[in-house]
Design a protein that fits this description.
heterodimer; A: seven-stranded mixed sheet; 11 strands; about 0% helix; about 55% strand; globular; B: mainly beta; five-stranded antiparallel sheet
Chain lengths: ~120, ~110
Amino acid sequence: GAVVSQHPSRVICKSGTSVKIECRSLDFQATTMFWYRQFPKQSLMLMATSNEGSKATYEQGVEKDKFLINHASLTLSTLTVTSAHPEDSSFYICSAPSISSAYSYNEQFFGPGTRLTVL
Amino acid sequence: GQNIDQPTEMTATEGAIVQINCTYQTSGFNGLFWYQQHAGEAPTFLSYNVLDGLEEKGRFSSFLSRSKGYSYLLLKELQMKDSASYLCAVHNTDKLIFGTGTRLQVFP
């Protein structure tokens, strides 16, 4: 199957700093990528849809000025958490859809996730 | 709004069968996925249903009833390694909307 990578896998930062998380599709092109956030013992919450060459689409309640998304190429999307605070500590996961020849649907391939801890 | 509900936690014994239910009310529906997620890891794909009925893949089966807004994941011959969270997700246009997730613990 298709491979999606994320970097870094783990980051610890001080309150007030900004953190950039990269999501790459390694062996396929993705015009769309998705960013999710997952708090402990909870499910994945879709934050935004990243669109190559255009603005991201944010879900209701997600601050677009706090979570900056850039999708500059067909294989890379970045999420920047600006002025991070302890409540932003979470597991951030990206995904990219790719046509599955077996099922003929856009199967989502997930990155390994980034654990963000804000002190 | 979008509601996708699952039981929060379930326990079962090694070798047994367990059924994890998922009910959904969403604005659109293009299919339903089941994922397995171990703590601190990304979800991994288990199954996909778009038509009513049962899809079987080895020890895992998934059922869908679109008229009832209902799906279940059936795990047979449970193994200790099946202890994980199980997430159902509705494919709505291009998005995946995840359910609340079910933490399954398998005991020896």
